[in-house]
Write a structure and sequence with these properties.
Blueprint: H1 5-29, H2 36-44, E1 50-52, E2 65-72, E3 78-83, E4 93-97, E5 103-108, E6 114-124, E7 133-142
Antiparallel strand pairs: 1-2, 2-5, 3-6, 4-5, 6-7
Length: about 140
């Protein structure tokens, strides 16, 4: 018995329509939504960004101070860099950062000697994956 080509073509239409629909959905959803497994693996397997340097240079009371904090390894632009209120910079110093820039700058003139623990933290913007968090606890010597 021979196969009916018309019946066979009707059987193929549903999978072709389904494939076209899936292809359109994938194109609109972004690169990391190709498969559920890929989204989970793609987003969760990213290495977190790092703040560099790992140590801050020493500062002197009454002398201008500047130190650059660079975000390395971020998949997207940096949303913000902040200093944690529980571990602030010494009086006279401030962290300046502009959104979308991978660089922050600690600058100012310290007013009091001491050893300070300073926690700098931030995050990146999200895309198909959520943004990434970063933090670094620094020990800053002011002489």
């Amino acid at each position: 018995m021979s196969e009916n080509p018309v019946a066979r073509s009707r059987e193929l239409r549903i999978p072709l329509k389904l494939c076209a629909l899936l292809a359109g959905a994938l194109m609109l959803s972004g690169c990391e939504a190709i498969m559920l497994g890929n989204v989970l693996v793609g987003c969760s397997s990213r290495t977190p960004p790092e703040l560099m340097p790992k140590e801050l240079p020493a500062a002197k009371v009454g002398a201008p101070y500047i130190a650059r904090i660079e975000v390395r390894g971020a998949d997207t632009a940096v949303s913000k860099l902040l200093v944690a209120p529980a571990h602030p910079l010494p009086d006279g110093l401030a962290l300046n950062h502009q959104a979308r820039e991978p660089l922050g700058v600690i600058q100012g003139t310290p007013t009091r000697a001491g050893t300070y623990e300073v926690l700098i933290y931030g995050n990146t913007f999200g895309t198909q994956c959520t943004g990434q968090d970063m933090e670094q606890l620094y020990r800053l010597e002011v002489n």
